[in-house]
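Exercise 7b. Backbone tokens:
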């Protein structure tokens, strides 16, 4: 069984749905998917946790492929309020939900080995190759950040698709160190930068976190922010997510997820309470 973790809120359920559907489509093994979420609607009406109906739909989808698969909702509201709320990065360019992965060592359901995926990722082939990477002596395996390797440092990794050795992470107190760092110090990419600072990382090929064009061996496509340079001195920053279908087609020229788009449209008709 392959274990996977996501984090987010109700507002981006369609993205989570698409990502989970791509995992179920491509991965032969059974999967255990853990969804970290929380309720902060008292701060922002959009900050609602994923609903039980949404989690049930995801569970139905993975079980259609493999009856042993499951989706588990992990409400970490209290953990966030205990360890991270009020910190320097609670209000930043990202929502507080981006920090939830830093609580994974405190969530009893999380197993000793797990793949963490941002919601803006899509699976392009079987996750087994990713899962089988040896991380026994490191905290995690990750790909370099496409732009950060030039702008920050050559070893800087992107944390949107990582294989985590939770046993080692707990031994090293990695996430506790990261929580303290993001609580005390404002950073542009807080959780990612903290992980880069403290984690023992194995660098792996871009196929496990492809941040640009999908290739024949791509396992995970990450719809993250990118930059296009124009001569002589111009540049264009884009941030297109997989659920922005028209932009995915017209700007990125990606059509391989069209079958998933069609399935999502059918689910909107049959399970409207989830959208």
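Sequence design result:
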């Amino acid at each position: 069984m392959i274990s996977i973790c996501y984090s987010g809120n109700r507002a981006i359920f369609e993205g989570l749905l698409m990502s989970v559907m791509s995992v179920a489509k491509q991965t032969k093994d059974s999967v255990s998917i853990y969804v970290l979420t929380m309720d902060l609607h008292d701060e922002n009406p959009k900050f609602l946790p994923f609903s039980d109906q949404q989690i049930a739909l995801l569970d139905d989808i993975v079980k259609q492929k493999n009856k042993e698969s499951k989706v588990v909702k992990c409400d970490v509201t209290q953990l966030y309020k205990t360890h991270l709320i009020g910190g320097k990065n609670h209000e930043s360019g990202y929502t507080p939900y981006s920090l939830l992965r830093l609580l994974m060592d405190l969530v009893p359901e999380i197993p000793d080995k797990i793949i963490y995926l941002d919601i803006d990722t899509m699976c392009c082939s079987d996750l087994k190759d990713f899962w089988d990477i040896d991380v026994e002596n490191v905290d995690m395996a990750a790909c370099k950040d496409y732009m950060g390797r030039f702008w920050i440092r050559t070893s800087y990794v992107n944390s949107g698709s990582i294989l985590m050795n939770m046993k080692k992470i707990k031994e090293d107190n990695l996430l506790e160190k990261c929580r303290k760092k993001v609580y005390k110090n404002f950073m542009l990419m807080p959780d990612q930068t903290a992980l880069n600072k403290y984690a023992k990382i194995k660098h792996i090929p871009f196929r496990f976190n492809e941040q640009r064009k999908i290739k024949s061996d791509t396992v995970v496509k990450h719809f993250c922010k990118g930059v296009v340079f124009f001569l002589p001195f111009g540049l264009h920053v884009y941030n297109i997510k997989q659920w922005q279908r028209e932009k995915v087609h017209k700007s990125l020229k990606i059509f391989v997820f069209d079958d998933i788009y069609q399935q999502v449209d059918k689910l909107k008709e049959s399970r409207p309470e989830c959208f």
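Instructor comment: The two ends are 29 Å apart (CA to CA). The first strand starts at residue 2 and ends at 7.
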